[in-house]
Specification:
Helices cover 28% and strands 30% of the residues. By secondary structure, it is of the alpha/beta class. It has a 6-stranded mixed beta sheet with strand order 17-16-15-18-19-20, with helices on both faces. A 4-stranded antiparallel beta sheet has the order 1-3-7-5. It is elongated. The two termini are 53 Å apart.
Length: 408
Amino acid sequence: MWRLVLAIAVLLIIPGIWSSFWLLSVTLLLLILISLFNRLWLRSIPKRVRLQRSMPGQAYVGDKIEVELTVHNTGILPVPWLTLQDFVPVSLQAIPRPEYLIALHGHEKIRLSYKLDCKRRGRYRVGPFEGQAGTLYDTTKDGMGETLGWRQQVKLVVYPVIVPLEQLQLPSRLPLGNLRTRQPLLPDPSRIAGVREYQPGDDPRHIDWRNTARLNQLQVRQFERTRIIPLALFLDLRAPDMQFIWRQVAEASIVVAASLANRANELNQAFGLYSNGYDPGWETGTLIDLELGRPEMQPHSGNAWLYEVLDKLAGIEIRTDTPHIEQNIGRWTSKLAWGATIALISFEPYPELVTELGRLRKSGFAVIAIFTAGQQKSFGAGAALDALRSVGIAVFDITFPGELNVVK
């Protein structure tokens, strides 16, 4: 439409230049040129303004991370005014709100920043940007400048909080780590048991040269024989119903699982995660099969593995339609080494679960049972706890401390 108006105006101005109305015609021509330049100026802003977001990709519950925004005008012409808004997920709190009004000179670069308060675990996408830009002479319909959009998004994983076992009302010396054994397994070079005289066939790398020089006879170090005991975390996230209280209890269970995984990693112990909870991953708008969304992570060790487990725990969700955990335990334990330590983390005990844990105990597994429902336990839970203790299972009935409640 504006092109038609421009063409008509030019046709009217040209005859007027050679008439008595030439001053009015020149003025109208200048206004048209200014309007045309202003429109081209306004349309060039989205192409010239570059935005970049810099922030960590991982954090823990309770962390406040810095988000830095860089706004760069790559053109010669200035940007008289520009509004920006960075979209932040509801579960994260931005301090202050990421809404800005700025002006940019030619080739100017401005840095803005705000903090994200990571109050809840989860996987998040921060962004995109939206804004509006305008010139000194606004020609838009609503008089609010040209609407702009930048699609840049950054992924952020907020891991569950990790706390000392004592703070979770658990003893620090749970049956975790490597165990001594009399079986003829490989010696552990990190555990020196003593020295003895060298015998043919001994590994020369184990010669103790200091004691050899002191006794003037070859001496070799002796090591304790240990067995690596993997830890399997069985996390039960089947909620009886969708009341909010079970979401709080589930958060307690997830924190316990994360803290046990971290403790096992400190002891250089292999650990794995198995759960009937649901992990949707990073998918949006796509339903993942419930079976594929259940974590079944075989025991491994190392810091990289710890963060893989924490990533699963960051995104896992409680379900009411998932099978009871004892229906999966048989399949999970079929892939575990004999004698592995199984740490079950569940809301409350019930007869079928007690029977399954007793079977695991008789099968040679070391079983720990941790229940987090606290005051929400149903009638008969006390008798189930006693039944577990009677078969030699270490039972910990904990109430999640209020100061560690991460659901806000």
